[in-house]
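Contributing: when you submit paired examples, paste them exactly as shown. First protein:
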Amino acid sequence: MSELTPAVDPGEVGLDSERLARIDTHFARYVDDGRLAGWLAVVARQGQIAYLGLGGQRDTEAGLPVTADTLWRIYSMSKPVTSVAAMTLVEEGRLELTDPIHRFLPEFAEPRVYVKGSAVKPVTVPATEPIRVWHLLTHTAGLTYGFHHTHPVDAIYRANGFEWGTPKGLDLAACCEAWAKLPLVFQPGSEWNYSVATDVLGRVIEVVSGQSLDQFFAERIFEPLGMTDTGFVTPDVERTAALYTPDPRTGERRRNDAMGAAVLKPRSCLSGGGGLVSSAADYHRFTQMLLGGGALNGTRVLGSRTLAYMARNHLPGDQDLEQFGRPLFAESPMAGMGFGLGFSVVKDAAAVRNLCSEGEFAWGGAASTAFWVDPREELTALFFTQLLPSSTHPIRSELRTLVYQAVVD
C-alpha cells in the first residue's frame, strides 16, 4: 500500500494554504447536501504533495469514512494507463502508430462505415482506409459507446450488449470480434468520437506482447512505479468505495451495486478503457511519472520525448474537440481542448472558459474522478469520488478554479 501524505508546506511551492482550504469548504457542501457520499483530492507541485483533502463516507450505508487509502473505480482514467502501455511497445519498435490494426486483429480487416438508415437497417459502405493504432489512441477510429444515445450505431452497440459494460462471458478478444462486426460511425481519421477504441488498443497490446493486459500492466507500469493497489480487481473489498448514481426522477444519490460489484471479482473482459480500480496514492505516482517526462524516482517507463509527443494536440489542423469532435459526452470540455495520444490537451486556455494552462493534459472517469498534469506550473491534481455519470455535477471545472486560485507565486 503506497503512502499518501502532504510532504511540503504549500507556501514553499507557491500555494496559499488558506486558499487551498476552499477546496474542503466547497466539497463539504457536496457531502452535506447529499450530492456526494465522499471525496478525496490531492494537489502536488514540484513533485511534492502540498494538499490532501477528503471528506464524507466511502460507504454511506455501512458508515465507513473516506480515508487516504480508499480504493476507487477509476473507469476511463484507465485509458491513459493503456495508452502509456501501448507507447512502451512503440518505443521498442514492436508497434507503430501507422500500423493497421488488422495486422494484429484480423477481424478488423474490412470495416464498414454507417452512412444512413436506422439501427435496425443501417446502410454502410467500406472504410476508405484501415483503422490504425494512431486512430485508437486519438479516438478517431470511428468506434463509439452504447451509452452515448446520439447515433444509430450507438443503438446497435446497445442491442449487442455494449452500453456501460460488456456482455457476460465475453473476454477482450471476443469483444473486439463483436465490435469489428458493427458499423463505424464515420470514416477512420475523419472525426473524433469518444469510444471503445482504448479497449481495442488493450487487445492490440495483448497480441503484440503475448501477455494478458493485466500481466502487461503489472510488469511495465504498476510494479515499476510501486502502484500496489491498482488492477482490474480490488485488492481489498472493505477499502473500496461504494458506487452511487443519481435517481433520474429526484436527482438524489442512490447506491448502485449492480455496476459497483464489477471490480469485486475477476472479470472475463479486461477493459483498458475503463476497468481499473486504484488508490489516490497509486494514481498520484502515475501522474508524477507523467509530469516527470516518463520517469519517477529514477525508474523510467517512457522516454521524455515520447511523453511530450503524447501530450501534444494530434487533431488534424490543430483543431479542438468542438471543431473536430461530435457534440456529445466526453470526460473533458470541448472548446479550446485538443486531444493527444490518450489525453485531452489544453490548446487555447481562453476558449476553455476555465482556469487552466495551455499544454495541460488530463482525463477523467465515469464516476466523476479526474486528474490533470500541468507541466508549465509543475502541478498535478487528482479528484476521487464515486458518482456516475461524471456529467451529473460540474465538479471538474470547479476543482480547476479552486486549485489555480490557490497558486500565488
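Second protein:
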Amino acid sequence: MDARLDYFTDPTAGKVLKYFMSAGKVLKGSALPTATQELVALRVSQINGCAACVDMHTKEAAAAGETPVRLNLVTVWREATVFTEAERAALALAEEGTRVADAAQGVGDEVWAHAAEHYDGEQLTALVMLVSFMNAVNRLNVITRQPAGTYEPGQFH
C-alpha cells in the first residue's frame, strides 16, 4: 500500500510536522513513565485503526523492554492481570479520551479520579496531552493511509 501523501517530501507537511513532532518529543521527556506512554499510545492507535502507529509503538515498547505478553494483551487490558493499577487507570482515561464521540460525557469523573489517584498533576497533564497528541497523529496517518511494517525503533528520534 502506498501513502496518499509523503510527509517527508511535502513542503507544507514538513513545516507543520517539525513543530507538531516537537510536542511529541516534549511528552517523551515528561514525568509520565515510558511504559505507560507506550501502552497508552498503542491503545489509542488500536482504537483508531492507525496501523503505522501500532507498528511504531509496539516496536518502541519492545525496544524499551516491554514484554510480548503485555503488548499482546493491551487490546483486552480490562481482563488481563499483567497491568498495574496505575497503567489500568491510564488506559481507561486513554480509551474514554479517544472515544469522546461515542461517549456523551467524554472522560467521566470516576475515570479521572482513578487516574488522579495514581498520577500527580504533571503526569496527568502529560497523559492528557499524550492522548490528544496520539489522536491527532492517528488521524493524520489514517486519512493519508500511511503504511505499516517498516518502522525501526528510534527511527524518528
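If you have annotations for the second protein, write them as plain sentences, like these:
The two ends are 25 Å apart (CA to CA).
Residues 11-143 form a domain with the AhpD-like fold (CATH 1.20.1290.10).
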